[in-house]
Amino acid sequence: MPPSRIGRTATDEVDSATMPRMTRARWLCYAVALLFVGLPDRASPQAIPAQAETPPTPVLSATAQRLYEDARPQLLQVRTLLKGQESQVSVGSGFIVSDAGHVLTNYHVVSQAALHPDRYRLVYSASDHSQGALQVLAFDALHDLALVKPAAAGALAGHRPLSFHPRDVPMSQGERLFSLGNPLDIGFAVIEGTYNGYVERSLYPTIFFSGSLNPGVSGGPTLDQQGRVIGVNVSARRDGEQVSFLVPAEFAEDLLHRGRDLAPLRAAAYGELTRQLLVHQSMLTDRFLAQHWRHAMHHQYAVPLPQEDFMRCWGSSTSGDEKGWQYQRSNCELDSHVFVSGWLTTGYISTRYEAYDGHKLGVLRFANRYSASFRNESFGGPGNKDLTGPQCHERYVDRAGLPLRAVVCMTAYKKLPGLYNASVLVATVDASQVGVQGRFDAHGVSFDNAMKLSAYYLEGFGWAPSSQKRQ
Amino acid sequence: MGAEQPEAAVKLAVVEILDADGRSRQVVPVSHWPIAIGRSIECDVVLDDPYTAPHHATLDEREGVLGIEAAGSLNGVSVGKRLLKAHDRLDLMPGDVFRVGGTKLRVRRATDALAPERTLPDARTGWVSLVVLPVLLALWTAAEHWLSTDPGGRSIDYLTLIIATVLGLAVWSGFWSLGSRLFRQRFDYWTHVRAAALFFFAAAVVRALLPLVAYALGWEWPSRIAYLTNIGVLWALVLAHLTIMLPARRKVLAIAMGAIFVVGTSLYLTRNYQTTHRMFPELYVTMLAPPAVRLAAPTAIDRFIDETRALKAGLDRQAKEDDGTGPEIDDDDE
Predict the structure, then answer these.
(1) Structure confidence by residue, pLDDT tens digits, B249-272
(2) I want to staple A445 with a disulfide (CB 3.0 to 4.6 A). Which of A3, A202, A281, B329 is the partner?
(3) Which of A60-64, A148-152, A421-425, B104-108 has the highest mean pLDDT?
(4) What 3-state DSSP class applies to A189?
């Protein structure tokens, strides 16, 4: 499989039903969230009917059986219903974490109800088939967690809550883990897998779980062998096998402590979401500006590339025997996506560059191809209900004697005031048969940070040290 | 020719009955004044026009000045914007066209000065432009193909392209000359070909040149307007074809086509502005020409970033104008 197909891991959440839209919007594929929306494409004959007692995995260890039996009363399905009509829009999982009946799940499981309380409502259904309405108390969009509670006082109270794996007890790679949830709305299930440490190059700590997580188990707990919660099921890679991700339990525990006594959210949660995203972008920008550019190996130009241990990059190039246009390119992206809604994630940074060599083309043909490549960029359409259309500013800028064509295009978030997307497009314009074009994208940053990041990116360009004399 | 006239009379003038395009359809010699115009066969100039009276008007010469006097009729006589009712009289200047009922007429007297003979358009210069312009156009398309392909392309591709260009030009001009045939009873084929080749070539040059100017000077507007200017040139080509078809309506056509272009452009710009808050869909100048073309000096990064800050006000206004208060399309995929 070519590298671009296995582009990047991500701990972020993409609602499975909107996945085609997401893949169109971005050029690499993603970890998908495990929210189950709608029916599976094909109800296969082997599909196990919704009998809570029958887990779909055929072979289970005795531990799994014991853990499942113990945790089953604490396990819930969290459903988002369309108000006025009782059909479900999406389903995830959740688990009881307090004697008072507090339930933890993913933010992306409850986001529709949190952002549009006028149109959606949340209900739980337990393994004993009891049901009831849920209210959102608090959420942590950055770690994709939400704390909810039954609307009816006392409902779910008295269930023995699940306990958290102690923070000071480290896990070792290869330890067995047991993930619980309700995959594809078929029935409660236990999925066995292994602990594989933390995902590398992820802005927020994320556990790499080798086990098959399916849509619908989002928000369900993953337990260690003692039945303590080690993480919360959040997403999986669809282009690999058994590559799944968990939110570490410590963040869930923190959210419980922070939110257990709060009053339920009444209005749309955009304000709180914006506040969290502003915190996120501030941290993201500071960390990004603190890392120093490494420079791509180009004989003529210094091209800014993020540090490899910070962002994941994939490269490609034309084969050497091409008759005309030759290029190398590299795409880098930081795994820091924050889920806003099924079709909108934000809070991440990506960079890209393409180095062109047109010696086999000649000056005019090179200019034509170089222009076409510069033109072939998208900054989003005319705007939608979440984002405005782009507005751009362009100039020739001077970077230590190297002339660049620079374009900054920005869009604003309509419902997340104070957040913007910024794209910087750069082309070197000093030579007639070689050139480098770069693009930097920051999603969901404040205007000031967008300006800082844009300047930082532009300053990353220059002459390669070996070509100083060209100035 | 006109009705039979008694012989042995001096020809004082001719009355020309004009067609809708203002050209003479029928010429009636005049050997005495006054002469009567109308539907009755008693008249000197007999019209086949149901909107005229049996005796509709009288042409007369008094002290060397030609004049027209309306007889009693429903529709009267009009000269320019003046409408003559019964027994109104008006002097006519040489070349004046007047309308009797629904028929346009003109009088030419033997004493009126004749416009000098015009020279025919030089057939040879005509042929030069007729060959040069289509060749330029064909070469231009071939050059565009050359630019956009890798070295070592097949010569048959260029040949195909050149033939397709010439053929396209021929067919395009053919359609317009059918129009000429309809309105002018002649094809004017080569005139149409010349106009089409000239304007198509001009449009191609404009398309290439404006972004180049934008790149060279670091100005954005020449590149922004390149698309509209291209449309404008092609619109002018349509006007040129129409003018060849209906030369007498040159003025009206120019005004009408100009007005349509202005209205269309305004609608286009307004629509762009309302959907994207920008007049032109182009976000940035995409042309990157060889460095020798660039004249504009680069600015410092700090200054560029400071200028970029100006985008904030517009974006915030845009975000506020429509921050989800409008009707939403359903979020869900179901």
Answers:
(1) 899 999 999 999 999 999 999 999
(2) A281
(3) A421-425
(4) strand
Task: Count CA atoms closer than 13 A to B121's CA, side-chain side.
Answer: 8
Contact B297 A396 (CB under 8 A): yes
Q: What is the pLDDT of residue A365?
A: 93
- A446/chain B closest Cα distance in angstroms: 11
Say yes or no: ipTM exceeds 0.95: no
CA atoms within 13 Å, Cβ hemisphere of B185:
3
Altogether, the residues listed in chain B come to a count of 334
Cβ contact, residue pair B318, A382, below 8 Å:
no
Nearest CB partner across the interface for B283, out of A364, A372, A379: A379
A110: closest CA among A273, A243, A298?
A273
Measured in angstroms, the CA of A72 and the nearest CA of chain B are apart by: 30
> Is the per-residue pLDDT at B147 higher than 60?
yes
State both tokens at B239: 């006007």
Q: How confident is the model at residue A383 (pLDDT cuts 50, 70, 90)?
A: confident
CA–CA separation, A328 and A200 (whole Å): 26
Predicted confidence at residue A60, as pLDDT, reads 53
A207 neighbors A231 (Cβ within 8 angstroms): yes
Choose from B212, B283, B287, B309 for mutation: most chain A CBs within 10 A. B283
Measured between CA atoms, the residue of chain A closest to residue B319 is A414
The pair of structure tokens assigned to B248 is 């007498």
Q: What is the DSSP letter of A151?
A: S
The rounded distance, in Å, linking the Cα atoms of A412 and A274 is 13
pLDDT band at A356, cuts 50/70/90? very high
Please check whether residue A143 is in contact with residue A251, taking contact to mean a CB–CB distance below 8 angstroms: yes
* Of the candidates A149, A163, A187, the residue with the CA atom closest to the CA atom of residue A36: A187
Looking at residue A427, its pLDDT comes to 96
- Assign B98 a pLDDT band (cuts: 50, 70, 90): very high
Q: Name residues 220-249 of chain A within 8 A of B (Cβ).
A: none
pLDDT at A3 over 70: no
- For B266-286, what is each residue's pLDDT tens digit? 999 999 998 888 899 999 999
Give CA–CA dist A174/B310, Å, rounded: 54
CA dist A264 → A7, A77, A116, A261 (Å): 39, 20, 14, 9
Minimal Cβ distance to A367: which of B289, B308, B332: B289
**Distance (Å, whole) CA A290 – CA A282:** 12
| Residue A21: alpha-carbon gap to chain centroid | 15
Most B CBs within 10 A among A405, A437, A451, hence the mutation to make, goes to A405
E strands, chain B, are 13-18, 24-30, 35-38, 45-46, 57-62, 65-70, 77-79, 82-84, 89-91, 97-100, 103-109, 299-300
